[in-house]
Amino acid sequence: xxxxxxxxxxxxxxxxxxxxxxxxxxxxxxxxxxxxxxxxxxxxxxxxxxxxxxxxxxxxxxxxxxxxxxxxxxxxxxxxxxxxxxxxxxxxxxxxxxxxxxxxxxxxxxxxxxxxxxxxxxxxxxxxxxxxxxxxxxxxxxxxxxxxxxxxxxxxxxxxxxxxxxxxxxxxxxxxxxxxxxxxxxxxxxxxxxxxxxxxxxxxxxxxxxxxxxxxxxxxxxxxxxxxxxxxxxxxxxxxxxxxxxxxxxxxxxxxxxxxxxx
Length: 263
Fold this sequence. Notes:
By secondary structure, this protein is mainly α. The chain has 12 helices and 2 strands, in the order ββαααααααααααα.
């Protein structure tokens, strides 16, 4: 059954398929119904492509946008009920547009951003574009964007931050203005190895404080002043062997006490 273009529709790409839809609903599942369904989808594809073109400047290829719009059109054809009395176009347009917006929300954001923040981003972006067209030589302020978008200044700031969150920058990407290939990965810090010893130092602190003064002084000179055993022996007027035995005895005692406390 051929489709017809009706002057009642506001667009030239809106064919008159009312009779086709009534026939489609009455047909049982089978080849005849599938063929009619395919003809209806094909007849409305120009409209789906027109709707996809509205989103061409948002970072997605037109081929992908056409495919998403076609998917939305198929869903609209399958779900449309002519008995409700509404024209198919009035049902298909929000269905196709919603499918495209869902594609951007679910597949185009590199980072997961809450739906509310995505909506704020769009409102801020449109407000900025409208205001920039009327401002000469400067960007709109946060207060101006908030007033134009009818949102709070705090929400405007969130939307502006989300403008930079649509895509993520690789850690290996060279930073703007750098002349020696300096990248984000070069700016990342590394774990401090001293953090691994914090617990051990805190555990031995009270046990070291309980040692006799001379033994405490020997350990301090050896492990904090980095003095050799011979220099310690010379400074205290004792033999190096005695210093070695005192260090071994003190360390063994502190170790046993700490391990016992940990049990």
